[in-house]
Amino acid sequence: MLETIAKRERDFGTPARVNTEMVNVTIDGNDYQVPVGTSVMRAAAEMGINIPKLCATDSLEAFGSCRLCLVEIEGRRGYPASCTTPVEEGMVIRTETPKLHDLRRNVMELYISDHPLDCLTCPANGDCELQDMAGVVGLRNVRYGYEGQNHLNDATDESNPYFSYDPSKCIVCSRCVRACEDIQGTFALTIDGKGFESRIAAGQNEDFLGSECVSCGACVQACPTSTLTEKTVIMMGQPEHSVVTTCAYCGVGCGFKADMKGEEVVRMVPWKDGKANRGHSCVKGRFAWGYATHKDRVLKPMIRKKITDPWQEVSWDEAINYAAGEIKRIQGQYGRDAVGGITSSRCTNEETYLVQKLVRAAFGTNNVDTCARVCHSPTGYGLKTTLGESAGTQTFDSVMHSDVIIVMGANPSAAHPVFASRMKQRLREGAKLIVIDPRQIELVSSAHIKADYHLPVRPGTNTALLTSMAHVIATENLIDEQFVAERCEEKAFREWREFVSLPENSPEAMESVTGVPAADLRGAARLYATQGNGAIYYGLGVTEHSQGSTTVMAIANLAMATGNVGREGVGVNPLRGQNNVQGSCDMGSFPHELPGYRHISDTTTRNEFEQAWGVTLQPEPGLRIPNMFDAALDGSFKALYCQGEDIVQSDPNTQHVIAAMSAMECVIVQDIFLNETAKYAHVFLPGSSFLEKDGTFTNAERRISRVRKVMEPKAGMGDWEATCALSNALGYPMNYKHPSEIMDEIARLTPTFKGVSFKKIDELGSIQWPCNDEAPEGTPTMHVNEFVRGKGKFVITKYVPSDERSTRKFPLLLTTGRILSQYNVGAQTRRTENVVWHNEDVLEIHPQDAEDRGVNTGDWVAIQSRAGETVLRADVTDRVQPGVIYTTFHFPESGANVVTTDSSDWATNCPEYKVTAVQVKRVTQPSEWQANWAAFSDMQHKLLDERIQDTATEN
């Protein structure tokens, strides 16, 4: 079981080597066999012999600077460092002799002579490797004293909000520098000076906050002393136990150890055995977890008749019964389909499954949808059509086998930073990189990384660009003919080949459309098709377009045409945004699909669920989120149960969404804060954070990982329990005793989850679906021998221009995205110290466009579209190309989605966030919408502050 593990995981000193060739060695008189390439230190550690060390750690390649790990090797002169010495056949090694003992103790004396002896008051007391090694070597006194030069009075750098840097305790082991370089890939730290004067420096001898440091925590994790220490540890002391869980931020799904004191989190430490993150983390998962206990959390259920009324705190039973009564009343008055629900991509699989079950079985309608509607629904449609499964094809580790990597419409360094770090490791090893993005993202050119091609595609023309790449591959005979003949539908391929080969699809013909030079596009296409394993990673810059589904199919076409599917290092890989957006889709959250992506109209599938659930299900798909809004405005949709999604801030055309919310008679919101959507609610059910949950998340690589409760739900009821209570109040019984029972039901009803259980996840650490009789331990790589649909299907991808095109009135194109320190609508990260790095959304505008409008960095500018207007501060930068502007959407007062329109993908209604025709002008005051938002928000917070206490509940 992984619920509670040792506070400090065992460190083998150097990384493991995977090699089938073995060598025989003798260590301290015992014979062993170890893989070729293994260090002496690692070989000894695997045999249970711990050689003293300070600079060595198994997350980094050996450095050999501390000289504490010396050993004797028969036939060799001197005392080699065991961390940098590989084993050899017949090697005889001694790890403990009187001479080694003296040498190690002398080395430790030198370290301690320039180190404060304040162990009792040091925050690392009890968790310090220097302290441990002093004990191991038997150091009892130090001969060198403190009369000479030392660093004991060096000033501490407290600039970073999450950790401190105390150089007086630094032993210059370089572990932090190497972690920043090798694991994170930022190269923010160096060793400044030489000899006695050498010290760790951030940037150009700046403080940590002002340097290039991205606060991933790798340096803190690597530090063997208290030089780099989490401020929570300094404040709270050492934790007493640890619980392994899964991060609740992006779709990477990092494994973490929650280091605890009772039910208080002391720190979150990346789990070394986490298969998604391999012991790495980013600033959000590592440090930005304080929102879970933030004072803004609403911990009591509340109800009100109108959104202009003060909230009334009530008991859970009263709130649930009131919500159920309103659902019944509305369905009785307006019909069964006047209500619906939205599942959460931040909640667990089990919770999401229950919400869609509630809507279908208790509400009696298929009016259920999820946030994937506005992000990756085109991925589901496009990959299902071409490959047969609505998910990515690889593991994250697969990128380490890639030779050419395409990153399209994604900014992994900001949105999926742990995966970005692994990708950059591979790029530093020599893999080629093609970036397709309107902006110059960090991957285009950064420390030790430079893209071979940056194709700055004009927003809205992705399909044209990929079809032109296909034209090059088809007309220059770069197609993997054998793969296509064996694996793909012949007729569809022939038609596709004829289509892409047409002259009008050539890079030259499309250059004026895409804005990408034909020579660059041809070079990129040839590189992808000819240089070995080619992998494509894409994000919302692909899907959030009017041709989002078409572009996903175009990506799949390229992968099939070049044979880049079905093995390590290749594939089609969507980078999912939220922590469980893959899982919310898997669980049947779309109105047309039951769990496992099976259509609601399929009689056999529907009958299976009807028998299991004991109800009759509707055979017709229900309303999508945009349909719900339209139906609310025409008077036919009256009630919404929204769990863990802030649709008012995150969905496009904000004023349209607000009008729809205002038209409903009962909005039930289940969340942890009074977010923008909750301000329009009539029932508020307090939600639980990931630290209060038991269940599973599914990440972007289909990896199902356990979420483990480290504290009891602060509101007294978990999200899954609240959903069950509402269902019971509606007359449909849900009587689960634990989330594991919900997963057992999911497994019984979902073929791809048939072999999944909490027990198996605990045994394996995580599981990638499909997991069934054919793949009892999961499926790391999809479509290995054949596609899920049988034969892969090529689809013709004709470019259709977006309605959102620049005009004389709206000459610029707005595109949106995310920034590293903030997350989605910012409800979590805005309530942490992450605001130190990013405390407002800003508008990036090219110098040429800024000069034309008299705009300078820091000026307030109005962004106007046909949907609305908002005002942001300008950032004049050449990260964007002329004619394109860019912003994020993390702060509600920014109103980025006031500007975005209701234009959407033709197949899935995914909004076209990435292309909005706008005008920009300099202004001196907020927009009318922002003034109205501020007044309404102030009123809602006042109504919350003035909420009527339920004295019966209090007593």
Keywords, please?
single chain; 955 residues; alpha/beta; 7-stranded mixed beta sheet; 6-stranded mixed β-barrel; 31 helices; 36 strands; 16% strand; disordered C terminus
Topology diagram in text:
Elements: E1 22-27, E2 30-35, H1 40-46, E3 72-73, E4 91-94, H2 98-113, H3 129-136, E5 163-165, H4 175-184, E6 189-192, E7 199-202, H5 218-222, E8 228-230, H6 231-236, E9 241-246, E10 255-261, E11 264-270, H7 283-287, E12 302-303, E13 312-313, H8 316-334, E14 339-343, H9 349-363, E15 368-370, H10 377-386, E16 404-408, H11 412-415, H12 417-428, E17 432-436, E18 445-446, E19 449-450, E20 453-455, H13 462-475, H14 481-487, H15 490-500, H16 507-514, H17 518-530, E21 534-538, H18 540-543, H19 548-561, E22 571-574, H20 581-586, E23 593-594, E24 598-599, H21 603-613, H22 625-634, E25 639-643, H23 647-650, H24 654-663, E26 666-671, E27 683-686, E28 695-698, E29 703-707, H25 719-729, H26 739-749, H27 758-764, E30 767-768, E31 812-817, E32 842-845, H28 847-852, E33 860-864, E34 869-876, E35 884-888, H29 896-899, E36 916-922, H30 928-945, H31 951-954
Parallel strand pairs: 1-4, 14-15, 14-25, 16-17, 16-21, 17-20, 21-22, 25-26, 26-27, 31-35, 32-34
Antiparallel strand pairs: 1-2, 3-4, 5-8, 6-7, 9-10, 10-11, 12-13, 12-27, 18-19, 23-24, 28-29, 29-30, 31-36, 32-35, 33-34, 33-36
